Amino acid sequence: MRSLRLLLVLAFLFLPHSVEAKRYWPSQTLTNWTLSLNNGVAYISSSQFADHCNYSRGQINMSGTEFNRALYAYALSAKAKGKSLRYVIDNTQTTCIITGLQEVN
C-alpha cells in the first residue's frame, strides 16, 4: 500500500501540468450579443467571443440546477437592460460552457 502511494505521488509529479484546464474571464467584453434557448441549452452568441469557442458562442446547460437557471435569468435580465457582458469559460474547451457572468455598463 505504501509503495502504491509513492508511485501515485511520483506519477503526479512527473505528469505534464500544461493539460490542466483553467477557467478565466476573457478580456473582450461582449457588447453586441444575442441570447437564445434551444433544446434545453441557452446560447450566448457574439463575434466578440473567445477565438477557441466553436460558432462564436458559449452555452449555459439548463440541466435543472438552480445555478444554471440563475445564470440564464441573469443573462436574460442583462439583455433586457441592454447591458454588455463578461463571462467565464474554460480555456481548453471548444464547446465553451459559461460558468459565470457579469454585467458591464
From TrEMBL:
Signal peptide bounds: 1-21
Keywords from the UniProt entry: Signal
Protein name stated in the entry: DUF306 domain-containing protein
UniProt source species: Shewanella psychropiezotolerans
